[in-house]
Design goal:
mainly alpha; 10 helices; about 70% helix
């Protein structure tokens, strides 16, 4: 019986943690300086419970960042299962753009959390880098992109995404930029598919 009680407590704690993260993503995306007390209230947990899970704003923001990056990273494999590798890569780039644009407030919160002296560094992009490598290597094996492109190359190329104003018509600008990059990736592909559009 004590074991079941302990498991139930752990389950409740996990649900509380997930609920806090869910609310915090929404609130911090809306406003980087959203009060932690408001996040706790909307998550339906007391201050004590909140601070047991996240002892500081920085701890909360870093966990959200890791969580959101994992979500983007984990979408790569399912895309590869249902689409041709180059189309999977292009759709994944769209997801990355959507993350960059719709989480602008969250990006501000992350900058604030990591910019002060003595604050933690931004977590590594390891899961997203691995996802990009997975997609690039699959497209390379299929002969639909030029060989030798690394995840680092890809992220340098799409760095322009982070300069687009998320309050404007970011969708069309991001689409043009990513189409341009995808066309460049296809030039020199062994499969001879250069110039094909994502829809063609």
């Amino acid at each position: 019986m004590p074991q079941r009680k302990g498991a139930a407590l752990r389950s409740d704690a996990q649900r509380n943690r997930e609920r806090i993260l869910e609310v915090a993503v929404v609130e911090l995306t809306r406003a980087a300086d959203a009060p932690l007390s408001a996040i706790a209230r909307k998550a339906g947990v007391g201050q004590g419970t909140f601070y047991r899970h996240f002892p500081s704003r920085e701890a909360l923001v870093m966990e959200i960042y890791r969580h959101e990056m994992r979500q983007v990273a984990e979408s790569a494999a399912p895309l590869l299962e249902s689409r041709e590798p180059d189309r999977a890569l292009r759709e994944w780039m769209d997801r990355l753009a959507r993350f960059a644009m719709t989480k602008a407030g969250l990006a501000d919160a992350i900058r604030q959390a990591t910019s002060a002296p003595g604050q933690p560094e931004k977590p590594a992009h390891a899961p997203v880098t691995e996802a990009a490598e997975l997609l690039l290597r699959a497209a390379e094996r299929a002969g639909t992109i030029r060989p030798g492109i690394t995840a680092e190359d890809l992220f340098l190329a799409i760095g322009g995404l982070w300069t687009i104003d998320p309050r404007g018509d970011w969708q069309s600008r991001a689409t043009r930029l990513l189409d341009l990059i995808m066309d460049a990736l296809r030039v020199g592909a062994p499969g001879g598919s250069s110039g094909k559009s994502p829809g063609g």
